[in-house]
Design goal:
293 residues, alpha+beta
C-alpha cells in the first residue's frame, strides 16, 4: 500500500467522521432553533390575544354598558374580540390560528374539537400546570400548538354562565339557554390554543443545513487537495528521487549526480545525509582503485 493511499485513507476517515459529527450537531441545533422560532411566534400571538381581551374588558365594555342592557353586543365579550383580531391576522397568515376551545361554550363556534377536548382534560388533571406545548400533524403539515387553561377565577363571569336565570336576557335572546351554563368558580372550562405552522421554519432550517453541509464538504475536499499537493511536492517527489538515486548507486553508478536540496526540513536533511553517504562511497571506491586493492 503506497504512502499516498495510506495518507488519503486516514484523511478520508477523519473527514467522514468530522462531517458526520458536525452534521449531527448542526442539524439538531438548526431544528431546535426552528422550533424556538415557531414557539416565539406562538407566544406573540397568544400575548396579543390576551392584550386584546384585556383592552376589551377595560376599555370597550364600560363604554357599551348602557347599550348592553337593551341589546346584547358580542363586542363586549373578550373572546369575541380576540377571535376577530386573529381573523384579521389570518387574512395575511391563514395558517396561524387562535381559539378559545371550550367544553360548553355560549357561542357554538368556540366548542372544542376532539384533540382540543384532550387538552382541556389534561389541564383539568394537571391543575398546577399553566402551559402545554406540543406538535400535531395535519393535512397541511406539522403544527406547533401553545395552550393555556381557561380557568374561572372571577365571580363576575358566573353572572352569564352559572344558570340561565342569572344570565342577561339580551344574551339569552342571542344564544338561547342551552349552552354556556353550569360553570363553577376555579374550574377549567376550556383552553386558549394557538397553532402555528412549522413547515416554513423547518424548510429554512433544512435549506441552511444543506448549504452548511455542502460548504463543509467543499472545504474538506479543498483541504484534501492542498494536503495531497503538499505531500506530493514536499515528501513523495523528494523520496522518489532519493529512491531512484539509491537504486543507481546500489547498481554501481557512483558518478550519478547528487540530489538537489531545497528547503531546510526533515526531507532536505535526509537528502543531505544521502549525498554525504554517496560522496563517501565514491571517495572510498576511488581510494580502493588508487591503491589497487
Amino acid at each position: 500500500m503506497s504512502l499516498r493511499l495510506k495518507f488519503n485513507l486516514v484523511l478520508g476517515l477523519a473527514t467522514l467522521l468530522g462531517i458526520l459529527v458536525a452534521g449531527f450537531f448542526a442539524h439538531n441545533l438548526l431544528q431546535k432553533n426552528a422550533r424556538e422560532e415557531v414557539l416565539d411566534s406562538a407566544r406573540i400571538m397568544l400575548e396579543s390575544a390576551l392584550a386584546v381581551r384585556s383592552y376589551t374588558v377595560s376599555e370597550v365594555r364600560p363604554l357599551l354598558a348602557l347599550q348592553q342592557k337593551r341589546q346584547f353586543l358580542p363586542q363586549t365579550v373578550p373572546a369575541y374580540s380576540a377571535r376577530k383580531y386573529i381573523n384579521k391576522l389570518q387574512q395575511k397568515y391563514p395558517d396561524y390560528s387562535y381559539k378559545e376551545a371550550t367544553l360548553n361554550p355560549t357561542n357554538p363556534i368556540d366548542r372544542a374539537t376532539d384533540w382540543e377536548v384532550d387538552i382541556v382534560e389534561w389541564f383539568r388533571n394537571n391543575r398546577d400546570r399553566q402551559e402545554l406545548i406540543g406538535e400535531r400533524d395535519t393535512a397541511t403539515g406539522r403544527y406547533l400548538y401553545l395552550t393555556h387553561p381557561i380557568t374561572i377565577t372571577n365571580q363576575a363571569c358566573l353572572t352569564c354562565h352559572s344558570t340561565p336565570d342569572n344570565a342577561p336576557a339580551t344574551m339569552l335572546k342571542t344564544y338561547g339557554n342551552a349552552n354556556g351554563f353550569g360553570w363553577r368558580l376555579n374550574s377549567v372550562v376550556g383552553a386558549q390554543i394557538v397553532s402555528v405552522p412549522m413547515s416554513l421554519p423547518l424548510a429554512r432550517a433544512n435549506k441552511t443545513f444543506r448549504i452548511f453541509m455542502i460548504s463543509l464538504v467543499a472545504v474538506f475536499v479543498l483541504i484534501a487537495i492542498l494536503l495531497n499537493l503538499m505531500l506530493q511536492f514536499s515528501v513523495l517527489k523528494p523520496v522518489h528521487n532519493m529512491a531512484q538515486n539509491a537504486d543507481r548507486v546500489s547498481m554501481g553508478e557512483l558518478d550519478a549526480p547528487e540530489l538537489e536540496i531545497e528547503g531546510k526540513d526533515e526531507i532536505a536533511s535526509l537528502a543531505q545525509s544521502f549525498n554525504r553517504m554517496h560522496r563517501s562511497m565514491r571517495n572510498a571506491m576511488q581510494m580502493l582503485d588508487e591503491t589497487g586493492v
